[in-house]
Every structure is written in structure tokens, then in C-alpha cells.
Design a protein that fits this description.
409 residues, mainly alpha, 0% strand
Length: 409
């Protein structure tokens, strides 16, 4: 048995904390430093740590804990108010990047008469539709804006964005794999939400009974973590939905029980902070190797990155503006959806396996993922400096009193 994994954990924890504190000193969220630490110790930097099965699985638990905590922190009253708004934001936030990605690819590989080339162009668009909200969640939490109307709209839109991205991804892979039936995917998605409704109601009542009988005992936190992991597993294994979506809904189920929610959050936050969250943030940089990026591909990577950032800001910002958010808050929502993170990497990997992404196109995509992931916390920090009713955390009563007069959500 090799014990190198112990060295990996020690290096990651040390560097993410040192770099996190350094970024905090220059008035940036700690997550920026954690991401930079991953790039530094990974193959693109010092090369001390490479991607391993242990790192991949530990990072996956980290992102599950992050999204579970995001669900726990969700204000259901705000989610109800922004539910339709989140849907509109997500739809436009998928369509604009999809078109932008297609145009960007055809600009460099311009043979629209070739069906295979158009399919590859469409898949680049699918990669740009992805949103990794976990980094945005951590940034908003550090800024004290996770429970605001803006924060809740971002979370809701990101969940819907994930579902829409899976649908588009499956439709495209259906053209290359005759065994994939797009209609069945829609059925599985509907079945997933039915499963969430039934299991969520059951577990809500179960945790309510535990709260009355035991109060806030340690066993409740363990049961809650089991529930989150099972929801993640079932979502991915049986419905083809991203595991982080299952974890997020598990958190939402418990967030209505105030005492249980606060107690579970206090325990899972420590679990994530001490080990799993740093492993996740560092893994994004560690799994990246930019060795194949040179010449014309650098230009393509730069253009793709600009399109990736602009398309989310414009698409999601436009959707938010249509739903009654003020321009300043609409832009903040767009900024919160910029990060592609692990979601885009997973989508790109599936595209490579299906033959929809040429090997030489992978490094530009990876660079785009890194840049969008790194700049999102910085953009959010700058974009949400001004206090507005929609980006300030309120109680349900305060939020209702502070709702903008022209809001339509």
C-alpha cells in the first residue's frame, strides 16, 4: 500500500490555506487562493501532485458537501419568489452560450457544410452552457450574500441550468450513439423530480420527528450526511442527473427545519472546511495540463474564454432583467453564473469519449474552465460591492418589505 496520498492531503491543505489567507489579505475571497494553489502544485505548475483516483473521489465528496450546505442555506421563501425567475434566467443563460460556442468554433473550424463539424461546434456550445455554482456558493457565503435574492436566484438558476445542459448533451450524443434515446432522458428527468418530491416529503417528516424526539444530537448530523450521499448516488446512478443536484435537493429538504438545519450545517461546514472543500478546489488546478496549448490554439482559447464569460453575463443578466431585477443585480447574477468548473470538465470529457471533441481542442477548453473559475470570485467581489435590497441577506419578513416595486417574480 502506498502512503503518498497522505503527502497529497498535507500539501493541498497547507497550500490552499496559505494561499487562501493571502488572497483574503488583498480583499479577495479565500477560494481564489485555493484555486491558485491547485494550479501551482499541479502539472501546470510545480508538478508535485498529479490526478489520482483518491484525489478525484475526495474532491467529489467535497463538492457534494458544498452543494449540500448550499441547500441547507437556501431560504425557501426566497426560492419561491425567484422560482420562475430562476427558470427564465437559466433558459436564456443556456441559449446565449450555446449560440456563442457554436459561433466561436465555426470561426476557427469554418466548414458548416460538414455535419460532423457542425456537431462538434454544437458540443463546444454545450460545454459553455455548463455552470459550476459551487465556487460561487463559497464566494457568496464569504461575502454574506448567499441568502439574498441574488444568491437564491443564482442557486435556483444553476440547478435548472444543470438539467437543461444534461438534456442538450444527451440529445447531441444521441446523434453519435444509436443506443441513446433522447425521449427516455426527458422521462428520467421527470422521474427524478417525482423521486425528489416523494423522498423529500418522507425525509422531511422523518427529520421533523427526530428533531422533536432527540433535539440536536450528533446522530442527526450523521443521518443527514447519509441522506445527502444517497441522494447524490441515486441522482447520478439511476437518473443520469449530476450528483451535486441530488445533494442540493437533500439540503433543501432539511433547510425547513430550523434547529436541525443549523446543527447539521455547523457539523458539515467543519467537515468540508477541514478536508474535503480544499481538496475539491485544489483538484480543479491539479487535474489541468496545458502542455498542448500553443500557437493558433492560444488565440482560440482566448476567444473562447471571452465568449464564455460574456455569454453568461449577457444571457443570465438579460433573463434577470426581464424578471424585474435591477440592472446592477442582474449583472451580478450573470457574474455568479460565469464559473464552469468541474461541470464543464465532466461535460468535455464525455464529449471526448463520444468523439465530439478533437484531442487538440481539449487544452483550450481546460484553459477556459480555469480562467472562468478563477475570475468568477473576483468578478463577484467587485460586482456586488454596492448594497442593494436584492443582494443583502434578509429574513423573510424583511425581504418582503424590501422587494423592488417593479419586481415580477
Amino acid at each position: 500500500m502506498s502512503y503518498d496520498f497522505l503527502l497529497t492531503v498535507a500539501i493541498v491543505l497547507l497550500f490552499t490555506k496559505v494561499f487562501g489567507l493571502t488572497s483574503e489579505r488583498v480583499h479577495m475571497p479565500q477560494v481564489v487562493g485555493a484555486l491558485a494553489a491547485g494550479v501551482l502544485v499541479g502539472p501546470s505548475g510545480l508538478g508535485w501532485i498529479g490526478e489520482t483516483d483518491f484525489l478525484v473521489k475526495t474532491a467529489e465528496i467535497g463538492v457534494i458537501i458544498l452543494m449540500f450546505n448550499a441547500g441547507l442555506d437556501t431560504d425557501l421563501s426566497e426560492l419561491k419568489k425567484t422560482g420562475f425567475a430562476s427558470f427564465v434566467i437559466a433558459v436564456i443563460g443556456v441559449l446565449v452560450p450555446l449560440v456563442g460556442g457554436i459561433g466561436c468554433y465555426l470561426l476557427f473550424e469554418n466548414d458548416p457544410s460538414d455535419p460532423a463539424n457542425m456537431l462538434k461546434a454544437a458540443f463546444i456550445g454545450v460545454v459553455l452552457t455548463a455552470t459550476s455554482v459551487s465556487i460561487t456558493v463559497e464566494t457568496l457565503r464569504e461575502m454574506g450574500k448567499l441568502k439574498s435574492q441574488v444568491g437564491t436566484a443564482i442557486l435556483g438558476a444553476a440547478v435548472i441550468d444543470d438539467i437543461l445542459g444534461i438534456v442538450v448533451l444527451t440529445v447531441l450524443t444521441g446523434f453519435t450513439d444509436p443506443d441513446v434515446q433522447p425521449l427516455l432522458v426527458f422521462g428520467r428527468i421527470l422521474a427524478f423530480f417525482a423521486f425528489v418530491a416523494v423522498s423529500g416529503l418522507t425525509m422531511y417528516k422523518a427529520f421533523g420527528l427526530m428533531e422533536k424526539r432527540w433535539g440536536t444530537r450528533r446522530r442527526i448530523a450523521i443521518y443527514a450526511m447519509v441522506f445527502a450521499l444517497l441522494m447524490s448516488y441515486v441522482a447520478e446512478r439511476f437518473f443520469g442527473i449530476a450528483d451535486i443536484t441530488g445533494a442540493y435537493f437533500a439540503g433543501i429538504v432539511i433547510c425547513g427545519l430550523s434547529s436541525t438545519r443549523d446543527y447539521v450545517a455547523s457539523r458539515t461546514n467543519v467537515l468540508g472546511y477541514m478536508l474535503f472543500s480544499p481538496m475539491f478546489f485544489a483538484s480543479i488546478g491539479i487535474k489541468t495540463d496545458l502542455e498542448g496549448l500553443a500557437g493558433r490554439l492560444i488565440v482560440f482559447a482566448a476567444v473562447l474564454t471571452v465568449v464564455a464569460i460574456a455569454s453568461k453575463i449577457v444571457g443570465c443578466g438579460l433573463g434577470a432583467r426581464l424578471m424585474g431585477f435591477e440592472t446592477y443585480d442582474a449583472i451580478s447574477i450573470g457574474l455568479g453564473m460565469v464559473s464552469r468548473g468541474e461541470v464543464a470538465l465532466i461535460v468535455a470529457q464525455k464529449g471526448a469519449q463520444a468523439g465530439l471533441i478533437d484531442p487538440h481542442m481539449f487544452p483550450p477548453i481546460v484553459l477556459m474552465v480555469i480562467v472562468t473559475t478563477l475570475v468568477t470570485p473576483i468578478l463577484l467581489q467587485v460586482g456586488m460591492k454596492r448594497q442593494t435590497p436584492a443582494n443583502t441577506e434578509f429574513t423573510a419578513q424583511e425581504a418582503a418589505a424590501q422587494m423592488p416595486k417593479n419586481s415580477r417574480y
